[in-house]
Each structure stands twice: as C-alpha cells, then as structure tokens.
C-alpha cells in the first residue's frame, strides 16, 4: 500500500477483472482498524497520462499483462480513512480482460513492485455481495456485477 498524503487528492485508475464468479483484488490490512480489506488492482495516474494509459501501465507493471477489451465503467470519488489518515481519491474504474489467460487459473498471484510486494487473489463475488469481504473503492458492487 502506498502512503496517504493528507490534504492531497489522488487520481487513480483501477481495473476490475471478473471471471467465473470471482474478481482479482489485492489484500490489505489496516492496523488502526485491525481490519483486512481488498482493493481493485491499479494505481495512481501520472501527470499528463490519461486514466486509460495509467491503468494499462499499472496492470502491465503489476501482472506483466496487457489488458484487452478495456472499458470505463465508473468514476468514483473515494473518501476514506486508512491507518488513521484521511484519504481522498478520484478513481477511474475500468473493466477488462487479461491478455495472459494463465493468470485466471493462478491463485494467489505474487506481485513485485518497485517499493513493495503483495499478493493478488481471486475472491468470490458472492463473498463481497454478502458483506463478508470489504472491497474498495466502496460502491454498489451488486449493481456493477449484474452489468458485467
């Protein structure tokens, strides 16, 4: 997880990968809330980079895969608190397919970034809809999954 700069609004681009009733997400832990949570894959959009270019770059960096059939599905203003710090993001949320099809059968997927390592996991959408797993950015995933 990256650090939060209070007082700054961050622009994010994230991509929801969905197949066979599961979504690919990263797992996080908030030490202050003592809570596990999940987050859609992606990251910050760089200056003078479009949301689409940013999400394609982030997924390439994280999964070493291109994204096929990329489609913008929502723009979300995400106000949250993580480890006691307030965060504010504008998130361009996309849906797409992984070009590296073998990733759909891999669980977990270990990701090595420049500053940290983490695992991405395929989790059941039914667990998200039942409220067993918090998925961020927070939105109405029930309506969203019906559209996918």
Describe what is shown at a glance:
The chain contains 3 helices and 9 strands; from the N terminus they run E-E-E-E-H-E-E-E-E-H-E-H.
Topology:
Elements: E1 9-16, E2 18-19, E3 22-30, E4 35-44, H1 51-63, E5 67-82, E6 85-98, E7 109-112, E8 117-124, H2 125-129, E9 135-136, H3 141-147
Parallel strand pairs: 1-6, 4-9
Antiparallel strand pairs: 1-4, 2-3, 3-4, 3-8, 5-6, 7-8
Distance between the termini: 27 Å
| Shape type | globular
Q: β content, as a range? A: over 45%
**CATH topology term:** Nucleoside Triphosphate Pyrophosphohydrolase
In the CATH hierarchy, the architecture is Alpha-Beta Complex
Question: What characteristics describe this protein?
Answer:
17% helix; 148 residues; 3 helices; 9 strands; 9-stranded mixed sheet; globular; alpha+beta; Nucleoside Triphosphate Pyrophosphohydrolase
Characterise the protein shown here.
Helix content is 17%, strand content 49%. The protein has helices at 51-63, 125-129, 141-147, and strands spanning 9-16, 18-19, 22-30, 35-44, 67-82, 85-98, 109-112, 117-124, 135-136. Strands 1, 2, 3, 4, 5, 6, 7, 8 and 9 form a nine-stranded mixed sheet that branches.
């Amino acid at each position: 997880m990256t650090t939060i700069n209070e007082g700054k609004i961050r622009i994010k681009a994230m991509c929801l990968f969905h197949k066979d009733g599961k979504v690919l997400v990263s797992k996080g832990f908030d030490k202050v809330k003592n809570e596990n949570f999940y987050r859609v894959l992606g990251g910050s959009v760089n200056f003078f980079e479009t949301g689409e270019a940013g999400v394609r770059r982030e997924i390439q960096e994280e999964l070493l895969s291109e994204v096929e059939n990329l489609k913008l599905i929502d723009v979300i203003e995400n106000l949250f608190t993580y480890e006691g710090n307030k965060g504010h993001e504008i998130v361009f949320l996309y849906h797409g397919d992984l070009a590296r099809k073998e990733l759909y059968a891999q669980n977990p997927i270990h990701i090595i970034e420049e500053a940290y390592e983490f695992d991405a996991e395929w989790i059941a959408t039914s667990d998200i809809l039942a409220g067993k797993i918090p998925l961020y950015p927070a939105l109405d995933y029930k309506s969203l999954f019906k559209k996918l």
